[in-house]
Design goal:
The chain is of the alpha/beta class and about 220 residues long. The protein has 6 helices and 9 strands, in the order E-E-H-E-E-E-H-E-H-E-H-E-H-E-H.
Length: about 220
């Protein structure tokens, strides 16, 4: 992907002239349409106009899936996820996400009014990017994922979002990203000083109604 090319996105605005944005990153093999239907289910108050941005990751071969090409934020090399990681791919996607944030800034939404969110691999990119940006965000929301490049979190994290609320949610029966992996990520973030809200649900690698209600409460608390 050319760093100057913005990712294509699905967008949903809850009102005219949005003052706040949520950039929501999909999981491996999905696309920006995956979470778009969740917006009305969040039942956000009508008084605040929010732009939901659901980008499509680029199509690339994924090693763990036999080299099959699919939408992916980075290559996944092993089922253990963090045993060997595609650092170069992660950093390419980080730049693509920063470009989306910059576009929201250009459309009149300050970074402090932007929530970065993601599911699974999108969660990994949310946490990776969110702890490194040198500017304040409204919140970070990671669903059913983990913190990649964990050994680099300490030397590379930035203090800008140390007191930015982080919503982490995971299914206790997740067979894709083991709950233990998510818990290690939570502990690492807290060790670095981040403000983590930790939620678990009796579900697999998915989203449930109780989680959607908690997401709504979180977004209403940070999109102020």
């Amino acid at each position: 992907m050319n760093d100057n090319t913005l990712l294509e996105c699905v967008e949903h605005e809850t009102g005219p002239a949005p003052t706040h944005s949520v950039i929501w990153l999909h999981g491996l093999g999905a696309d920006g349409h995956d979470f778009a239907p969740i917006v009305p289910e969040l039942r956000l108050p009508t008084g605040k106009a929010v732009r939901f941005v659901f980008p499509h990751a680029t199509v690339q071969p994924v090693t763990i899936n036999g080299g099959m090409a699919m939408r992916s934020w980075y290559d996944i090399l092993t089922p253990q996820l963090v045993k060997r990681e595609d650092e170069a791919g992660i950093r390419v996607s980080e730049r693509a996400i920063l470009a989306l944030i910059a576009r929201e800034n250009a459309r009149g939404v300050p970074s402090a009014n932007i929530v970065l969110a993601g599911f699974s691999q999108g969660c990994a990119m949310t946490l990776h990017t969110g702890i490194r940006v040198p500017f304040k965000l409204a919140g970070l929301m990671g669903l059913s994922g983990y913190l990649p490049l964990g050994d680099l979190a300490q030397p590379e994290h930035h203090a800008a979002n140390l007191d930015t609320p982080i919503f982490l949610a995971h299914g206790t029966y997740d067979p894709v990203v083991a709950p233990e992996r998510a818990d290690v990520s939570r502990a690492k973030l807290q060790e670095l000083g981040y403000q983590v809200q930790w939620h678990t649900y009796p579900m697999p690698h998915s989203v449930c109604p109780e989680e959607i209600a908690d997401i709504s409460h979180f977004l209403q608390s940070v999109l102020v």
